[in-house]
Amino acid sequence: MTDGPGESANRSDTPAEDSDRPLLESAVVAASAGVAAVGGSYAAVGFTPAFVAAPVSDFVVASTPDAVITWSIQTLGNLGSQLGFLLALALTVGLFALTSAVGIALAARFEVPASPVVAVAGVAAALALTGAAASTLAAGASAGLVAGLASVGGGANRSDSTVPGAPRRRVLQALAGAFAVGGTGAVLGSGRGDEIPAPDDGSVSADVESLLGEAEGRSLDVEGIEPLVSEQFYQVDINNVDPTVDRENWTLRVTGAVEEDVEFGYDEIAGMSESVEHRFVTLRCVGEGLNGKKMDTALWTGVPVTDLLDAAGIDTSGNCCVMLRAADDYFEEFPLSALRNGFLAFEMNGRRLPRSHGYPVRALIPGHWGEINVKWLTEIEVLEREAKGYWEKRGWHGTGPVNTVAKLHAVNHLDGGEIQVGGHAYAGTRGIRKVEVSTDGGASWSEATLSDPLPAGTGERGPSGGRAESAEDAWRQWEYTYEAAAPHEVVVRATDGEGTLQPSEESESFPSGPTGWVSRRVEP
Ligand SMILES: Nc1nc2c(c(=O)[nH]1)N[C@H]1C(S)=C(S)[C@@H](COP(=O)(O)O)O[C@H]1N2
Ligand SMILES: [Mo]
C-alpha cells in the first residue's frame, strides 16, 4: 500500500519476488485483523464505554497535557476531541494488529492454524481493555475470522510463497474481510448505546406540549438562527465516549457534611409528583468562542434540588459548598447557595434525557456556566471547605455566573434589499434588558427587536413567591433590519436585566469565559 506510483509494476506475481513478501503479507493480514477486531467490538456494543477504543480514548485524554487541552479547546473546538478520538481509534487498531501479528507468528512457529490463535490473542487484548463479554468476544472472533479468511486457499497458516499468487490472494482476502467486518460493524454499531429502554417514552405531557408551543410562537422569524428551543443542542464532555448508565441500578447519593448519607433511586426522584416541573433553561460553555455555538436552550423536566433535600430532612445549613460527582468521573465544586436554586432534570423537551445530555439525571444550576451542570449525576457531596473541580484543577474558573453575551449568527439579505442581522442574547438569571446594534463600527447604536421572554416553568416562583412571569434563566433572540449601500461593520452589545452593559473589552475563553462585543464586516 505504501508503494510509490512508479513501483506498481513490481506487483506482478513473479514467484521469485515473493520471497521477501511474507513479512509484509503478515503485516497486512495482522492490520486487517486489527481493523476487524475494532469493527466487531463496535458492532456488538456501539459507541459505549464497552467499545474497545473507549478506554484507549480515555487514556489519550488523560495523557494529553492540560496546556494542550486548553489550547485545543480554544483553537480547535470540537475538532480537537475528534482528532483525539481518531488517534485513539488508530492506536486501538494498532494494538489489535500487534496481538494478531503475535498470533500469526506463534501459529506459524507451532504450525497450527492462525485463526484460533489470533482470536484468542484478540480476546486477551480486548479483555484487558474492557470487561464487557459481548465486546470482547466480538473483537476476538472478528480478528480470528479475518485471519482465517486470509489463510483460505493461501497455504493455511504458513506464508506459502511457493504457490504463485497465493500471498497476494491472502492479502486481498484479509483486506476484503477487514472491509466487510469493519463496514458491518460501522452500520450495526451506530444505532447502539442509545437504546436504553424507557417505558415512559413517546407520550409528551400536555404541559410540555403547551410550553413548547409557546416557545415556538415566541421565536422570531429569522433565517439562520436557532429557535428559542434549540433544534441542535451542543454537547461538551471530558470523554469522547459517554457513559451508559442503567437507570434501575442508578442512585444519587448525598454525602459529606450531612448527618447521615442518603441515597435516592430514579423512581423516588421522578416520582415526586408534587415537585415535578418543566423549566426552560439555557446552557453556555465557558470554553466556547465569543461568537461560538455552545449555547442552547431546552425545556427540562425535573425536581428542584431543595425539594429533594428538604423531603429527606437533609440539613446543609452552615456549609459552604458542594462537589457534584458523575458516572464519568467528572466532578465540579461550587457554592451550596447555587445548588439550592438547582434543578435535577430527567427529561429534555418532553423526552427522557438523551444519553449525551446526562441520562438518567443531570443537574441544572441557574445562571452558571455549563460546566457545573453535571450530567450522569451520581453524588452530591456537601463540603465544609472549598475544593477544586475537574476544570478548576486545570486552571479554568468556570463555576461562577455566566458573562453577558449577544451573538451575531445571521446576516440575511432580504428580498426588498434590506439587511437583517440576528442572534441570541443571554445573561443567565440577570436576564436581558436590551440588545443594541451598530452598523457603523460602534459610532452609533440602535435598539434591536427582542423575542418575548420564554414563559416561566410550571413551578418557577417569582421574587414575591407567586408564579414567575417568565423563565428565570433563558436566552432571548434579537433581530435588526436596516438598509446599507456600502460595506460596513456591524457590532452587537447587550445590556443585562440589572442595567449593566456588557464590557467591550475582548478576552478569550480561558480561564473564565469570553467577553467582548461581537462584530462582523457586512457587504451590502
Ligand atoms: N458528567 C459530566 N457533566 C458535564 C460535563 C462532563 O464532561 N461530564 N461537561 C460539562 C460542560 S463543560 C458543559 S458546557 C455542559 C454541557 O452540557 P451538554 O453537553 O448537555 O450541552 O455539561 C457539563 N456537565
Ligand atoms: Mo463547558
From TrEMBL:
Residues 243-391 form the Oxidoreductase molybdopterin-binding domain. The chain crosses the membrane at residues 83-108, 120-150. Pfam families: Mo-co_dimer, Oxidored_molyb. Residues 412-505 form the Moybdenum cofactor oxidoreductase dimerisation domain. InterPro entries: Ig_E-set, MoCF_OxRdtse_dimer, OxRdtase_Mopterin-bd_dom, OxRdtase_Mopterin-bd_sf. Residues 1-21, 438-472, 486-524 are annotated as: Disordered. Gene3D superfamilies: 2.60.40.650, Oxidoreductase, molybdopterin-binding domain (3.90.420.10). Keywords: Membrane, Transmembrane, Transmembrane helix. This is Molybdopterin-dependent oxidoreductase. It comes from Halorussus aquaticus. The lineage of its organism: Archaea, Methanobacteriati, Methanobacteriota, Stenosarchaea group, Halobacteria.
